[in-house]
Amino acid sequence: VLAELSEKFVSHLSESRTDCYFSTGSYKAMDADVKKENLSSVQQLGVEMTVRYGKYLNLLKEDAENGLCFVLMNCEEFLKQQQRTVASSLCCLQEHYAGYDWFASSIFLIMSGDREKTLMFLQKFSCLLVSAFLWLPRLHLSVHLPVTTVECGIHPVYFCSAHHIEMLLKAELPLVCSAFHMSGFTPSQICLQWITQCFWNYMDWSEICHYIAICIFLGPDYQIYMCISVFRHLQHDILKHTEA
Length: 244
Prior knowledge:
Blueprint: H1 2-14, H2 41-56, H3 64-80, H4 102-110, H5 115-125, H6 131-134, H7 147-152, H8 156-172, H9 174-183, H10 187-196, H11 205-218, H12 221-243
Helix pairs in contact: 1-11, 2-4, 3-5, 8-9, 8-10, 8-12, 9-12, 11-12
Organism: Helopsaltes ochotensis
InterPro entries: BROMI_C, Rab-GAP_TBC_sf
Pfam family, one: BROMI_C
């Protein structure tokens, strides 16, 4: 139900000019059978983890690995059309996105391993503003960002979402905010980890689906409220650890 609802919602918005924040070029998916060996070692490890998790949730079939590789390779090629070249020694500014694409993998699981549906959804989703915040590889070396922003190597999620989370945390949960300051560790660091990984390894699958759905249906600011609500939920444990 969630897959169908998300598909229809994103398809409807992507057809509206006022809702399309980014331009999308024409892209035809590669027909070639994409093997895992074509991916980086980080991506290969991510594919193994995703497929293992998907089978554990009874969402994927035996041939799912090739389907996920197909999605990841095509996403990379599709997003390359909207990237600029930057001369930098920073690892995060090389041609390939340095991490693993957890968002695309999450959509692949939501679509029950249907590679065509997943790719079609991601292509339409990429023109919406919320894609900049949920799908981190979306803005990797992006032409949609000012050159100075790209060259600094800091993703907009860090100076937009994470910044607002810290501001809200100070107002909503001052004790949690103080606990972080005392530890010498900033809330934005852990939030960036949560957001980059789509809360994988932190939440149950149904909650991960709710997080993605809430942000898509209600807007990217719900990413901020979600993180604040997690801190509120963890407040007792955070304060207990601080005392100890």
